[in-house]
Write a structure and sequence with these properties.
The chain has a single domain (2-151), classed as 3-Layer(aba) Sandwich (Rossmann fold). Helices cover 39% and strands 14% of the residues. The protein is built from 5 helices and 4 strands; from the N terminus they run βαβααβαβα. It is globular, with a radius of gyration of 14 Å. The relative contact order is 0.21. Its EC number is 3.1.3.48. It is an enzyme of class 3 (hydrolase).
């Protein structure tokens, strides 16, 4: 089984949203495990209300989701790590250099014509629903590139 991990700060907004959207995009019966974690997460929290609303609108609900702190055990079980910002990618690479080759920035999976490669996905925490919608749009632009990368694993 192939494994994809999304990483953000608290694992309640961006990374669970990416997790849900990628799961919804995968074909039925896919052999890809998708999860998420945070570099500074408080384990056991639900996804933010705004994230849950957006995922539901897009038919991508997360069942029984609980936030979790990123650790070496999670990384050992992962083939592709997708960070939502360059600081998240750097933190993973510094804390676990043996996994550095697996770490990518989400926006690097977006078609270069969009002009978003190398850009951080902004943290919508505490903002209005428009901020969460913008995050979902950026993640959705990356989904085709992520699916292509997963096929090559």
């Amino acid at each position: 089984m192939k494994s994809v991990l999304f990483v953000c700060t608290g694992n309640t907004c961006r990374s669970p949203m990416a997790e849900g959207l990628l799961k919804a995009a995968l074909p039925k019966g896919s052999d890809v495990h998708v999860s998420s974690a945070g570099v500074a997460a408080m384990p056991g929290q639900s996804a933010s209300r705004e994230t849950a609303v957006i995922l539901k609108k897009k038919g991508a609900a997360l069942d029984r989701f609980k936030s979790r702190q990123l650790d070496a055990t999670i990384l050992e079980q992962t083939d592709l790590v997708i960070a939502l910002s360059s600081s998240h990618a750097d933190m993973v690479k510094r804390s676990a250099p043996e996994f550095a080759q697996q770490v990518n920035l989400l926006t690097d999976f977006i078609d270069p014509e969009e002009g978003l490669q190398g850009v951080d996905v902004p943290d919508p925490f505490g903002m209005n629903s428009d901020a969460y919608e913008e995050v979902a749009e950026v993640i959705e632009l990356a989904i085709p590139g992520i699916l292509s990368a997963v096929e090559k694993l």
